[in-house]
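Morning!

This is the sequence you dropped in the shared folder:
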Amino acid sequence: MNQHFVNGIGQTYKSTFDCFRQTVMMEGYMALYKGWFPNWLRLGPHTVYFQNVQSYLIRFYCWFFLIAFFFPAVNPFIYFSQNCNPS
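The structure's back. Tokens below.
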């Protein structure tokens, strides 16, 4: 824990539980939720975006591997390896 020191002495808290107890006694239970809403505003859109992208990637790769398994003559691995290299 980062604690303030005055003249090299003076710990504010004795332990983690003491920090928790003093915070609740001085500021109330809602002090434990400080910063929750801004953090949610930051992570909420990222979570929604990531879940959508992940579902599209899963669908694409399932299709990609099914084509390679059931139709080996039209193997997408060979097609993409030959046609995507700019050599």
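Headline: The mean pLDDT is 77.

More detail when I'm at my desk.
O.
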